[in-house]
Amino acid sequence: MFMISWTDFWMFALPAFCCWLAGAWFAWRGNRIAKACGFTLAGLLIFAAFIIGLWVSLERPPMRTMGETRLWYSFFLPLVGLMTYLRWRYKWILSFSTVLALVFIGVNLLKPDIHNKTLMPALQSPWFVPHVIVYMFAYAMLGAATVMALYLLLRKNKRPAAMEMDMCDNLVQIGFSFMTLGLLSGALWAKEAWGHYWSWDPKETWAAITWFCYLSYIHYRLHRKTSYSIALIMLLISFLLLQMAWYGINYLPSAQG
């Protein structure tokens, strides 16, 4: 039986990226929706084949290490880009999602995480897989919103349009909803694995800070519909806090012990 490992990653990542690149190119051409969607979807299927194959080979879900979570992020970014493109027809979104996915693919090619097949008992909970998948999808949605916010802030001599801000709002609201589901499933996982729903450890604390920051953005947009610059800056700050909750805490002094 053919077993897939990290050494096979490039054989799936390269054709998947080429398909995403082709999809982004057809999106830029305009009026090529079928080809843009077809190529992007083909890349997603190729990448999904690697994830499934690695899952079977490891005999566990590939969600244990940072490299494995980057794998899911690389998958969900083009998926979110495709969904956004289909909904709002922003032709640039597939290009941005492809570039961001390439960054995570490149990191995994240069620094793959190779571990044994076993999972610690706490990670064998049935809540572990949905918790990680929901969170990765939320991160991808919020990442797309951040790219849009950065673009609107750096664009010269042109004030963001209401429609463009509405797109940021929609992406944040969807991402925030999935983040909330991630928090709830994480609490259920913690209860089953450690006997309590919440313990305010560094991971949970930063996750809560990030959640409240995005909630603040949503409330601010509800009451300050025309204060675009402040809202966009809030969005960037929220995403920086999200990075701390995702992997930044691993570099804190408390994590070194």
From TrEMBL:
Membrane topology qualifier: Multi-pass membrane protein
Listed GO CC annotations: plasma membrane
GO molecular function, one term: heme binding
Predominant subcellular localization, coarse grouping: membrane
Keyword Cell cycle in annotation: no
GO terms for biological process, alphabetical: cytochrome complex assembly
Name of protein: Cytochrome c biogenesis protein CcsA
Organism, scientific name: Bacteroides graminisolvens DSM 19988 = JCM 15093
